[in-house]
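ARCHIVE CARD
Drawer: 12
Card no.: 0347
Subject: one protein chain, sequence and derived structure
Cross-reference: see card 0346
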Amino acid sequence: MIHYRNVSKIYSGDVLALKNVDLEIERGEFVSIVGQSGTGKSTLLKLLILEEIPTTGQVIFNNRDLASLRSHEIPLHRRRIGVIFQDFKLLNKRTIFENVSFALEVAGRPGNEIRRNVSQILEIVGLSEKFSKYPNQLSGGEQQRVAIARALINHPEVLVADEPTGNLDMINTWEIIELLLRINKLGTTVLLATHNKDTVDRIAKRVIAIDKGNVIRDQKEGKYMI
């Protein structure tokens, strides 16, 4: 499904973010991408959502080299990939329902479809009863659930989570991870970038470790080891 073929990424100033990365991720996998800050985890994900392009090598998604996508194809590609960040990026002046429905409204979907889809997604993340609340009326864990709901609203094939629990305590952290695992069981491929050792060890699924831009370990059922 996803293949990084000999990918390197060098930023201006000769900053090496990734070096000769060769990885294949199958449909339906749950993959933890681990490493300290600045090791290349976020760059790996940004290449997949076309926020960055490789300096050398190819990023393949569903048998298509992302470099071959034309500009009008990029929005469709990004709808296939839901993205969650450490900072929730919610619209504070919009309700939870409005935050989740925003992407569908922009796409011009009919109102009845929007209401049905948003209601289904809010039920999945456990926020059905808080649809009329505003972000500042929710806990940090609940706000991240809203962000997950928003990422799921287009029914993506892949869910990318870049340090999604970095601002949460351990209780809320594991609740978010359990939600990601449940989403994965429903068939969505999940890529989790994190430096939280306890979380990765508890998940006990595939672990890819990156250090100084290099993939130094790839284990099918691994632990956090750098």
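Annotation on reverse: Residues 91-147 form one domain. The chain has a mean pLDDT of 94.
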